Amino acid sequence: MENPQAFLKELRTLVQQNEVEQALARLSSFLEERSSDLLDEALSLTQQFNHWEQKMRLNLIDHKEYGVAFSNVCFGTLRLITQSLKEMQGPAAQHPSAGVALSDLGAAQSVADASAEAPLLRSGRAKYEAGDYSGALADFDAAADQNPKLLEARLLQAMLYGELGMPEEALRFYNETLSLDPGHATALNNRGLIYLENIENYQAARQDFDAALQAEPGMTTARFNRALTYMNLDEFEPAVRDLDACIKLKSQSEQAFGLRGICK
Asked: What is the pLDDT of residues 115-150, one digit of tens each?
């Protein structure tokens, strides 16, 4: 296959056109050819799709329940496509970037006291962990409606849309998060990734990574991403400085070593 990234993006379009069965079949073949650890997840999603299709044919569920199940299979497939793209990003990849995923963000990190987290956010997190992505988004949405100043609701929406490979939606909610807290390091880093990877606006990406590091100087993910941004801007000296810092802090050091060699 000449361009696997273009192929995976084509599969994403199929899912968005509700052709999820075809997308899963092609994705499974793609992952099998590469002996990917993600193959089991693709086969599991295919089983889920067939399970709900059969229940619908036998009139064992109504259209509403089927719609929720179908949405979750679609969201799960989009997320798997995003993971497949990331899996292809080895040390020699053009953009082996680093983001903060929803699964990495503990409740205690997003609010001062985890016990004070809004019930809808706790419910949404639980649904996310269970693979109920449409339910998680609905809960985060409802939490934001209940409290328009609840930053965490928008942040979690943005992070989940990012994991689902929906950068336009993610960007919208990162913008809303940053309107409530312009110095939120995680939101700045992850929005910078969208500018870096999806929009290719490298100046905007650098500004976000600069701001993230100003807010949280020890955030090595933002430092690594800023190095990549400098490389795209052909500014290799500051890129090397950031990569040196990542190596010193033992953060993504294997990739940093490889990229530093390219810069010198």
From this structure: 457 899 999 999 999 989 999 999 999 999 999 999
CB 156 within 8 A of CB 121: yes
CB neighbours (10 Å) of residue 141? 15
User: How many residues does this entry show for the chain?
Assistant: 264
| Tens-place pLDDT, residues 4-33 | 888 988 999 999 999 999 999 999 999 999
CA distances to 58, 117, 133 from 138, rounded to whole Å, are: 28, 17, 8
Per-residue tokens: 58:
């036998």
Classify each residue of 212-247 as buried b or exposed e, where b means 16 or more C-beta atoms within 10 Å of its C-beta: bbebbeebbbbbbbbbbbbbeeeebebbbebbebbb
With b for 16 or more beta-carbon neighbours within 10 A and e for fewer, the 200-209 pattern comes to eebebbbbbb
Three-state secondary structure call for residue 40: helix
- The answer to whether 174 touches 185, Cβ cutoff 8 Å, is no
- DSSP letter string, 135-199: HHHHHHHHHHHH-TT-HHHHHHHHHHHHHTT-HHHHHHHHHHHHHH-TT-HHHHHHHHHHIIIII
With a CB cutoff of 8 Å and minimum separation 6, the contacts of 260 are 240, 243, 244, 247
d(CA 142, CA 133) in angstroms, rounded, equals: 14
Contact 152/118 with Cβ under 8 angstroms?
A: yes
